[in-house]
Design goal:
The complex is a heterodimer.
Chain A: H1 16-26, E1 31-33, E2 42-44, H2 49-58, E3 64-73, E4 83-91, E5 99-105, E6 111-113, H3 122-133, E7 136-138, H4 185-188, H5 210-218, E8 227-230, E9 233-242, E10 254-260, E11 263-270, H6 278-284, H7 290-295, H8 302-317, H9 328-357, H10 362-382, E12 391-392, E13 395-396, E14 403-404, E15 418-419, H11 420-444, H12 447-453, H13 461-466, H14 472-476, H15 483-486, H16 507-534, E16 551-552, E17 554-562, E18 565-573, E19 579-580, E20 585-589, H17 591-594, H18 599-603, H19 608-618, H20 622-626
Parallel strand pairs in A: 2-5, 6-7
Antiparallel strand pairs in A: 1-2, 3-4, 4-5, 8-9, 9-10, 10-11, 12-13, 14-15, 16-19, 17-18, 18-20
Helix pairs in contact in A: 8-9, 9-10, 9-16, 9-19, 10-11, 11-16, 16-19
Chain B: H1 5-8, H2 28-37, H3 49-58, E1 81-85, H4 90-102, E2 108-112, H5 113-118, E3 140-142, H6 149-164, E4 189-190, E5 194-195, H7 200-211, H8 233-241, H9 265-290
Parallel strand pairs in B: 1-2, 2-3
Antiparallel strand pairs in B: 4-5
The chains are: A alpha+beta, B mainly alpha.
Chain lengths: 627, 291
């Protein structure tokens, strides 16, 4: 084991209350408690925000900015004035819970200082808040739209911005079947499409200007005069676009690269090609409605997404009087599902990373076999292969079945009828370990994997923390930070497993982390099997019925360690004085999105072919990146 | 439709006995369609969740190479089939239409899943196109969220059946054998919202109407409500007695479909005549074939 001790003087410990006290002593006039009902943390006045952020990071030791998002409080009963609010969740990489701090600004001239100089990880998150909420961040290096395009009309996440297909504020909509008539949303729009044009639309200047604006903002341009001489070989500088349609970008992702010969000198990710308005739709849905939508975030690991969301809402439910936490068996089943999902995720990630290295689809074919087996179990339990929609507030939707008989998967298969526990035991004790050993045997010492992976896509320990990287990217850079260990939830404290950390910070280290984590997941799964036997017959669903309607007011940040990293859900419930039927704000801290912040840093200086593999080693899913 | 020799030789042309095992006679369309349906190359192009199930369909358990579709090409120039596998956003529909225009004819579009077919769960979203058929002609819709690999296979087989039914002698079936390449699909523009070039005229008139509220000329209207076919008597009376919308609509203005917006009345009439003729031709051809 490599020595990974942190120098003593950097370690700051102490409770959150201590930290808040120190912060208030340091800024007595500018920091006040957030005393709204169900809220926590402090409110910092905007002109001292950057200074306070630096103090929080340097003196109080909250070096990891997990989440930064905006909330629009417009015409909302609990809070007297209409305002926009930025919410920050900072953590210590040594573990512990969050220091929540907020800054407020008015809605007309929404301006706040940027915290990007303090935490680089705020870069994309502030751009997102600018794009969707219209908050301008002073001092941000590159403030432009990130998910929508330059020139889009308005800031869609503001409460007074209505879509073309807008019906009502709350679901279920009463207008869908008035007097027995079918309304299709298309028929309400004169254009028959999901569009809404401003009255002052200028059709005379309709060439697509967003592209050139974007290049300019990135500081890129084709400089034909610029010729670099490399020992007699003269090379031009040029711009190469990869994506949004490209087989190696793992979906509709786009990278703009400035290259000199074969070397990347600058890289900017461009996203939003799968921005499907998860958060706006989530604010109209009831709390329960959102569970199937979370499936579609990181669509490789839907169970993990469910878990993060129900944990956030359960935090809110715990504020109310009547709340029973999930039963022990429900927690065991949740962890079982989540760990199986993690294996699926890592198999998929390694398989497609090898695709990017040139092993075109051969390893994937083997990995998908194991995945199909796990999906069969999901299908038998939840009814669907991928979009499981399985977890509920206070439990799960149904217990695991006695037998698995899959009728829909008859192609190439015998009729399946297995005892579930036997199926699980065989899978966990034999099949998956064998498969992981195969991966290890064929790939870990493979010359090509080592030559392409070692030393490429380097991210230092300091940068990994500063850029808010999460999951295998963070642990591959030598940061021992895993939400399951650092801020434990569910039944993880009683399970025996290790955090997998590699110090090299390159692609190969991330591969090793994923491989190790699959083994650790198997260790957890083996401990779950006797627990499943032991709790057999215990109810898993009894607590859920009462929670589908109203949720006490307040805010909550639920986070889990998903396959791709820390997945967080920031949920604000603010309706009438006691409870709300749907979230006022519903924000997803997407690891795939924030892990892309250091992509430019990792790729600069590498070759074009490496960029593809570096992106693969980060392991993104576009449903989560763009939401 | 399999090409077996006995079936091929069942024609009205007498084939000499000594040639019967060497020569086969069939219609050109059959051979042509047989080749086309069994070498359908999809574009390697994933949009969202459905793309994962598309990959699962390509792997060994489901294995769509059994139908001649294993060669997924990453470039549209070598593809016959675009599987629109996932939510189409306004930002993404621009590249999708461009990719479609780059595909050589004959080309087909399969809308995989609820989102590509009609917007799906994300339909109300401000950045979501409610169905790729708003911009491109779709041949097969596969429902599901996401469709299982079996459902996708079923959709692909449905497409093969559609190809089997096409005839070289009918210009509407195979327009690429007409006078020249067909018109490219108009590429949408990202303005304040997505702009379909075919609707430019409508957008202009809407903007004018909005700027000058007292405009005399009515703008476009649509029948906002489709009646459900099954209403009991009481409901039917209630529906009939329902007050009309307060804004009076000029009934004299003819309804135009979106694809025809901006075309002159003569051109629309000509199009209708042509379609009617084509339909009659097809009918005649079918009758002749059936004898």
């Amino acid at each position: 084991m490599v020595d990974m001790t942190i120098p003593e003087e950097q370690v700051v410990t102490g409770t959150i209350e201590d930290a808040i006290d120190k912060l208030k002593q340091r800024f007595p006039k500018d920091v006040s408690d957030d005393d709204r009902q169900g809220y926590s943390g402090v409110i910092i006045s905007s002109d001292k925000l950057q200074e306070a952020a630096r103090y929080i990071k340097d003196e109080l030791g909250f070096d990891y900015l997990s989440n930064a998002t905006a909330v629009d409080y417009l015409g909302e009963g609990v809070h007297s004035e209409d305002h926009l609010e930025m919410v920050y969740h900072a953590f210590r990489t040594t573990g512990g819970s969050a220091l929540v701090f907020k800054a407020q600004t008015d809605r007309t001239n929404a301006t706040l200082p940027s915290v990007t100089p303090v935490w680089r990880g705020a870069d994309f998150q502030e751009r997102e808040a600018y794009d969707l909420m219209g908050i301008k961040f002073e001092g941000h290096p590159n403030l432009q739209r990130i998910l929508l395009w330059e020139g889009f009309n308005g800031y869609p996440l503001r409460k007074d911005w209505k879509e073309a297909y807008y019906e009502e504020d709350h679901k279920p909509f009463g207008s869908r079947w008035p007097a027995g008539h079918v309304h299709r949303a298309e028929e309400k729009s004169v254009f028959g499409k999901n569009v809404n044009y401003p009255a002052d639309i200028d059709l005379s200047r309709l060439n697509d200007v967003s592209e050139s604006t974007m290049y300019k903002a990135f500081g890129m341009g084709v400089d034909t005069e610029h010729v670099v001489d490399h020992n007699g070989v003269q090379t031009d500088q040029l711009i190469v676009n990869m994506g949004p349609h490209h087989p190696s970008t793992h979906g509709v992702f786009r990278m703009i690269m400035e290259i000199d010969g074969e070397t990347v000198t600058k890289l900017e990710p461009v996203m939003g090609y799968l921005h499907r308005n998860h958060e706006k739709i989530g604010e109209r849905n009831t709390f329960l409605h959102n569970i199937p939508f979370t499936d579609r975030l990181d669509y490789i690991s839907s169970m993990g997404n469910n878990h993060g969301y129900v944990m956030a809402v359960e935090q809110l439910l715990a504020l109310g009087a009547k709340y029973n936490p999930p039963t022990y068996r429900a927690e065991v089943i949740r962890v079982l599902m989540v760990e199986l999902t993690r294996i699926v995720n890592h198999l998929w990630a390694i398989g497609f990373w090898l695709n990017d290295l040139g092993a075109f689809f051969t390893p994937v074919l083997y990995f998908v076999q194991e995945r199909e087996r796990i999906l069969d179990f999901f299908e038998a339990t939840a009814g669907s292969r991928m979009m499981c929609n399985y977890m509920r507030f206070g439990g799960v939707f149904a217990d695991i079945p006695e037998r698995i008989h899959s009728v829909s998967n008859l192609i190439n298969d015998r009729v399946r009828d297995f005892d579930t526990m036997k199926f699980l035991t065989e899978m966990i004790n034999e099949r998956i370990p064998r498969s992981i050993d195969e991966v290890d045997e064929y790939l870990t010492q493979n010359d090509i994997v080592q030559a392409r992976g070692m030393g490429v896509g380097y991210l230092s320990r300091e940068n990994a923390i500063d850029y808010s990287a999460a999951g295998p990217v963070l642990r591959g850079s030598g940061v021992a930070y895993d939400v399951r260990k650092s801020d434990p939830y569910s039944i993880y404290p009683e399970l025996d497993f290790d955090m997998v950390v590699e110090t090299e910070g390159d692609m190969y280290a991330r591969y090793l982390v994923r491989l190790g984590e699959m083994r650790e997941s198997l260790r957890i799964l083996k401990q779950l099997l006797p627990r499943l036997e032991y709790t057999h017959g215990e109810s898993v669903t009894e607590n859920n019925s009462a929670y589908s309607s109203k949720v006490p007011i307040g805010e909550a940040y639920g986070r889990v360690e998903n396959g791709k990293g820390e997945l967080g859900f920031y949920v604000v419930s603010a309706g009438d004085k006691r409870a709300a039927a749907n979230p006022w704000r519903y924000h997803v801290r997407a690891p795939s999105f924030i892990n892309l912040t250091p992509l430019g840093l990792m790729s600069t200086g590498g070759k074009v072919a490496d960029v593809v593999a570096i992106l693969g080693s980060i392991d993104i899913v576009l449903g989560e990146t763009d939401r | 439709m399999e090409l077996n020799l006995q079936e091929l030789n069942k024609t009205e042309y007498p084939i000499p006995v000594e040639l019967q095992s060497n020569v086969a006679i069939t219609s050109l369309s059959s051979v042509y369609n047989w080749g086309r349906r069994n070498s359908m190359w999809p574009m390697l192009f994933g949009l969202a969740c459905c793309a994962i199930e598309m990959i699962a369909t390509a792997t060994s358990r489901f294995d769509f190479s059994r139908f001649g579709m294993e060669v997924m090409r990453a470039t549209p120039r070598q593809s016959d089939l675009m599987i629109v596998s996932g939510t189409v956003t306004k930002k993404m529909v621009v590249p999708i239409v461009r990719l479609y225009n780059q595909m050589p004819e004959p080309k087909y579009v399969l809308a995989m899943g609820a989102c590509a077919s009609g917007g799906g769960p994300f339909k109300e979203g401000y950045n979501v196109v409610s169905g790729i058929d708003k911009y491109l002609p779709v041949d097969v819709y596969v429902p599901g969220c996401p469709p299982t690999p079996q459902a996708l296979l079923y959709g692909l087989i449905a497409l093969q059946k559609k190809i089997d039914g096409q005839s070289l002698s009918v210009a509407d079936d195979v327009p690429w054998y007409g006078v020249g390449p067909s018109e490219p699909a108009p590429v949408p523009i990202l303005g304040p919202d997505i702009i379909d070039p075919r609707q430019m005229d409508m957008i202009r008139r809407q903007a004018e109407a909005a700027a000058n509220v007292k405009t005399e000329e009515p703008v476009y209207h649509l029948n906002a409500v489709r009646e459900l076919p099954a209403l009991d008597a009481e409901q039917a009376v209630a529906v009939a007695a329902r007050p009309k919308a307060s804004t009076a609509v000029d009934e004299s203005i003819e309804m135009k479909s979106f694809s025809q917006a901006g075309m002159s009345a003569d051109a629309i009439e000509a199009l209708r005549v042509k379609r009617r003729e084509n339909a009659l031709q097809r009918k005649a051809a079918r009758l002749a074939k059936e004898g």
